[in-house]
Amino acid sequence: MDIAELHRRTQETWTDRLDAISPDQWGGPTPCSEWTVRDLVNHVAGEDAWTVPLVRGATIEEVGDSLDGDLLGDHPIDTATRLAEEASAAVAAALQEGAPVHLSYGDETLEEYLRQLAADHLVHAWDLAAAVGGDRVLDADLVAEVARWFADREELYRSGGAVGPRAETSETGPQAVLLAAGGRDPAWAPPQP
Questions:
Q1: Is residue 67 within 8 Å of 49, Cβ to Cβ?
Q2: Ranges of each domain in the chain
Q3: Interhelix angle for 110-132 vs 174-181, to 10°?
Q4: Which residues partner with 107 through β-bridges?
């Protein structure tokens, strides 16, 4: 799968799950134990907001703190969807040039940055679905593509604190294996009152 398709499809996987959020779920828990549903959506919306200046060549220092805090406002689903669309358009334009992206740890290829975003969108789509009772089943081709890429980076991400310890699971399917590698219990469900 080429990188443009991977980015587009994982981003669509994320935005497709936004509509499952009901108004009373924004403060609810997610598999990311420190985040509510709103925190999770704001995180991914923030990734999309950062994508635009970064793929256009800006540095972390140039963006500064302009994208800190709550980006969602009073219409969080609309805002998250709009930011995803803006990121998608910026990525499509940047792929024509293929210039490096300036990240916090140094310059990175555009393809590697987009693979990072694809993994983030895909796994957080599952997080959101699990939190709000949405569709937890991820596209098998996307799971395979992200898992193949992540296999060589799992320990690097874990040692850097980007993912938690590998979760124990008795499930053996590719989606469950990817989620466990990312520190998630594939059977996670919100606590019942």
A1: yes
A2: 3-137
A3: 100
A4: 102
Instruction: List pLDDT tens digits, range 117-130.
Output: 999 999 999 999 99
Residues found in the chain = 193
Q: What residues pair up with 108 in beta bridges, in sequence order?
A: 101
For residue 56, the model assigns a pLDDT of 95
C-alpha distances (whole Å) from 151 to each of 55, 67, 144, 180 are: 25, 30, 11, 12
Pick 3-137's CATH classification: 3.40.80.10, 3.80.30.20, 3.40.50.720, 1.20.120.450: 1.20.120.450
159: exposed, middle or buried (Cβ count in 10 Å: 0-12, 13-18, 19+): exposed
For 190, the token pair is 């919100």
Question: Which residues of the chain are modeled with pLDDT < 50?
Answer: none
Res 165: pLDDT: 87
| Helix (H), strand (E), coil (C) string for 65-108 | CCCCCCCCCCCHHHHHHHHHHHHHHHHHHHHHHCCCEEECCEEE
Question: Tokens 């799950």 map to which residue?
Answer: 17
Write the burial class of residue 185 (CB in 10 Å: 0-12 exposed, 13-18 middle, 19+ buried).
middle
Token pair, residue 149, equals: 């890429």
Task: Tell me the three state secondary structure of residue 36.
Answer: strand
pLDDT at position 157 is 87
